Every structure is written in C-alpha cells, then in structure tokens.
Amino acid sequence: MNARNRRAAIAVGATVLATSLAACGGGGGAADGGTVEIEFLTQDGGTSVPLAEAMIEAFQTANPDVVVKLQTQPGGTEGDNLTKTKLSTQEMSDVFTYNSGSLLQALNPDQTLVPLSDQPWVGDLSEDFAQVVSTPNGLYGAPVGTSRVGAVMYNRALYEELGLEVPTSWSEFMANNETIAAEAPDVAPIIQTYGDTWTSQLFVLGDFANVQSADPQWAAEYTAGNRSYAEEPGLAGFRHQQEAFEADLFNEDFPSATFENGLRMLAEGEGAHYPMLTDSISTIQQNNPDAVDDIGVFALPADDAANTAITVWQPNAIYIPSTTEDEKLEAAKRFVTFFNSPEGCAVQSEVLVPGGPFVTSACPAPEDAPPIIADIQEYFDSGATTPALEFLSPIKGPNLENITVAVGSGITSAADGAAQYDEDVRKQAQQLGLEGW
Amino acid sequence: MASTTTSAARVAALPRATRLEEPPGHGRGGIRTMYPSWFYLPAGALYVVFFAVPTFASFYFALTRWTLFDVEFIGLDNFVQFFQEPQLVQGFVNTFFYGFVTSALKVVLGLALGLLLTSQIIARGYLRSVVFFPVLVSTIGIGITFKVLLDPFGGLVNESLAALGITGPGWLTDPAWALFSVALIDVWKGVGIATLIYIAGLVAIPQEYYEAARVDGATSWQLFRRITLPLVRPATATVVVLSLIGGLRSFELIWATTRGGPGFTSDVIASVIYKQYQAGFYGLSTAGNVVLFVVVTAIMIPVSILLNRKEVDR
Predict the structure, then answer these.
(1) Distance CA A97, CA A80 (A)
(2) The whole model's pTM is what?
(3) Assuming Cys at both sites, which of A259, A296, A364, B192 could form a disulfide with A196, CB separation 3.0 to 4.6 Å?
(4) Do A255 and B279 touch (CB under 8 A)?
(5) ipTM of this predicted complex?
(6) Quick one: closest CA in B to A253, which residue?
C-alpha cells in the first residue's frame, strides 16, 4: 500500500515538475533545475506559526528554487506522541521543530535524524546548546528562538507602587506576598493557572537551579538513581508550592484559569508574581503590548539566599529526519542554515520578543530589548545560572504537571506528590533503559 | 404470554432475540444461506486486519518495553508496574463509581422519561426528539460546551445559580465534584438511548393487562409495580448492559472536560492508560488495555448471563 502511495506521489511529483518547468520556460524564471518542495512542521499555538510563516517568506525570497509548505501539529504530550509516531512510521515532514534535551533523546536521534555536525553554523553555537542537541555520535539540531529562564515574572509597576524589593530568599518572597495581600487586596500575590496544567510545574522545575547550588552533584546522581525528589533539597519546590497554596496567595480562579489568563493578569496588574518561562513575554507583547516594559523577572528564591540561582531552558531546535533524501535533503539543510544566518536572525528578532539571550553568535542581541532581558542578563553576568534538569539528565517524568496541580490545589501533600513523582521518573528511566533503576 | 414476552424482547434487544430464535445448526453447514460465503470475505478481511490482528499483537506488546523504535521483551513487568501505579487504585474506584452512577441514573431517568413519553401528553413527538437529541451530538463537543457552561467564574450555570442566591461549586475543578459532574453530563448525553429502549419496551406491553388490572381495581402504583416493571425487564437488561459497558470504558467525555484532573481525582482506567500512552510508555499502556479488556469482560459476562437467564426463566 505504501509502495503504491509512493508511486502515486512520484507520478504527481513528476507532473508538477513538468508543469513548473513549462512555466519556467515561458516566463524565463530563475530556477535552473525546477523547484524542490519541502514540508516544514511546527507546533501550533503561541508564536511558532507567525515565526514559521515569516521565516518561510524570507527564505523563499532568498531561495526561489525551493518551496516550503507549512504544517502544524499540537505541542505538549500530544505533540510528543505524534512526533514519535511520525518518525517511526517514516511519515515525518522534511524539516521539523521539537524540544532539545531529554525529549530529543527520547526520539532516538541516532536512528531517526540526519546528523548536521558538518554544517557551517555549528561553530557559532554556544557550548550549552550544542550539548543538548547532540548524542555521542553527532549534532542534530539548530536553535529556534532564544534561550529563556523559568522564574518568577513580576509586575515592576506594582513593586514600585508598594515599595517592594526583589526577594532573594523564600522567606523574603513570602513577606512580599503578605505585603501585597495586605496592601493591595484586589491583587493576587501569586498567579497560578491550572486550566493549562503544564503551567503548574514551574515551582518545581524552576527551583532546580537552587537544588543544584545546594548539591552540585544532584543532576548526575539523580540520573544514576541516587537522588530523589522526596528528599531535600529536591523536595523544596514541592514544599514551596504547598506553602503558597496554604497561605492562600493564589488568584481566586486558579483551578480553571489558563496560561493566557495568567499573563493578562500579570500584565494588567491583577496579579503580582507568575512563575513562568520568560519567552511568554512574546505573548504579552501580542496581547498587552503596553505592559511589556512593566514586566521583570527574578529567580525562584531558595530557602537560603546563597543558593538562589536562575534556571535556564535552551531553545527548541529544528531537525531533519533521516527519511528526507537527495535534493529535498539539500534544500532542507539550506532551510536550517537560513535560520541561523543574519537574515534568519533578523526575522527571529522581528517576530519574537526575546525571552533571553540567543544561543548562537550568528544572532546579535537586539538593541531595543525589554527590561526583562536586563534582569536575566544580570544572572548570566554573575554566573548564577543552571540549565534546567531536562538538559542535564535524560529523565523527566511525564506526570509532573498532574502531580503539581494536585499539590498546588491542596489535594496532595508536598511529600506525597514528590514521592509520586519519583515513581513516575522511575518508569521513564526504565523505559530509557538507564542503569541503576 | 410466551409470544408477547418474545416480542418485547425482540424490540428491546434485537441482536440477542435473533440469536435465540436461530434454529440450531443453521449457518454452520452453509446449506441455505442467501449469499455465497465469499461475500463475507471483505468484511472478514477488515475484521482480521483492524480488529483480530491488533488484539493479538497487543497481547504480545503488553509483555515488552516498547519505544516504537525498539521492542524489548520484559515478561510480566508491565503488569507489575501497572498495578503499582498510584493513580490506578483511584482509577479503578472512579471507573466503578462512574459506571454504576451513570448506569443507575440512566435506568431511573430513562424509565421515567419513557413512561412520560408513552403517555398521552402534548407535543409528544417533539419531546421525544428533544430527549434523544443529545445522543446525536459529538461527545467532545458536549465536553467542551459543558466545560464553558460549568466554568465556576462566569459560566452560565453558576451565574444562574448566583442569581438565585446560591453559590455553585467548581463543578469540574473541585476535586469533590469533578467526577460526579462528568457522570451527570454523561447521563444527560446518554439518557436518550435509554429512553428510546424503554419506549420500545413499554409500547410492546399489551394494553389488555392494564385493562384487566383496572377492572380488578388496581391503583396506578400497582399497575406500574406489578405489570410495567416486570414486563420491561428485557429493556432494563439492555439499558444496564449497554450503559455499564459504556461507563466502564468511558474516556472521551472525561478527557474533554477534566483530563482526569484536578490532579488525578477524576481519572478512570481508560484515562490512566491514555496518559501512559501519551507519555510514550507504549508497552505499559498496552498492558493496561489488556487489563481493561479482562476486567470489562469479567464483569460483563456474568452480568449479561444473569440478566438473560432471568428473562428466559420467565
């Protein structure tokens, strides 16, 4: 059946080629060997589609012999599943975007992707990024967008109005929350949005830099099965989420509010703090452009101020599956290269509000960066940054978002939630065939 | 008497009645079938490719750690793992709660509506369509609609309750209410089928019995208790079996409304399995499906035998 489809596809392709050649003959077009059509798959939602459309337009202008068709699929766990299914059934688009780090490792890149180690842009990549798109056998992806941090986005205008200082320890943070609750009763001290369950994970995932400061061997020992979230310092993230719930600091509609609701609340000053990934500043730019300059960020504070550091997420990347061949492969490589060329960088800076520094030296930092970037840069300058756990360890339990919703809603205690997550992680480690589990 | 019971059964549970009336040995020898046997081939091929092969393949994959790229045989580990799932116990409890609540409410409401819609009331045909209408709407569509209606902030239901001075709960977001709310939505959607089956069962009861009983001075309650209820038993059996099976393997509505949340409070077996699948634990989720298959079979075979036997004894 597959073979027949392929034959049909070739027949159709030949017809298209013939017609386009005829068209070229008449109009004296630029292409000398006809055009190549490649398919580019990205996630729907957020800013991925506007970025992809702008990038395709710029690329086609510079490369008239290539036609890029855009495909979209959902993100999140549903997208993970689709990506794996498409790769294993050899139905993947010619170029696609996907996460870097542990999720990439789960795609089995050595078997399913085309290595890009010999490409010209590889030398420009930051070492941290190159690491999270590589296996011992090669490098597979080029960055899309900027790195971002998972930390507390806060409303600076509100902080100024109430005379608050950026907290560096958990107790200072809670003191700020109490001040906000007392002096601005209409404002939710902390925004939580469990209508989009993934947003509930930041207390835990964003706390990782603090865990690693307290115990620099944590990530490595965790991968080997010798550390767990049920014990300190890993437990701190869960514990803080429970404390925040018990102190009644969340917005009233936290069980049903969505990610976009949360950003709106933050932008309009209905909420003071929102633990979130900073690339969501692009969404604020889209929906509340006037508020972008009011938004700042600080690291989720550790119990001990000396351990407070900020957790950094590497950007997603663009990959080529091993099913892309011949002239399509060549065109796909050109498309990937374009992403990290000066023209590609210009498109990225134009469409996206950067949520952090670029990870390739080919893309210069934009000049009119919003204040949130300056906040992030301070942490980079002082060296108080750590990559998120998913970039240091291949294990990430899939049920974390449901567990953190339960902890943040007072259904499960922090200790029970952490223990459940440890169990979840054990399954993932076994699925990956790691030693020691 | 015997013939009327059979006719009621035929209306209420057509496939089973047909099977009962099949002369023994018919079809086995293929002597007097209307069509040549190879007419069965296309349907048979589809059945084998899309049902039989995947079912048997799943028994194998349930014993492996499967990434879609590689398969590693690990014996019964997946089943051990599956039964250690923290959500699983709650998933089982929730599944049974959901199955029994929806099934019981469908029987009670279906019978009540059936009685109402077979009595002489105004706009009977219109009302029958209204009751049946939700059955025709897509489950996912219903889930999304109710998610909006039941939103605790600005949702129509709680706004209306607020106008009456009642503070409605977070129907789908309060852990104490979530599963029950979804079960109620399921009943709203499915009661049309139950009503339809009951209407068919009720109209098949001969009026003579009621007339005779009335002559003997029976009250309305006695008519219902002594005549209607025993004679709609086949319909009740069908409704119970259908809605119990539906309830035990319910998934779409739960996924569209709560995704098993908040936390794991409205997870049922099917949603636990789906989450394993989403997480990429393909072997584990296949093992879960085998477990679900066994559990549903283990419950439904006795239920179905029990209900059928009573019907035949009569």
Answers:
(1) 11
(2) 0.78
(3) A259
(4) no
(5) 0.72
(6) B153
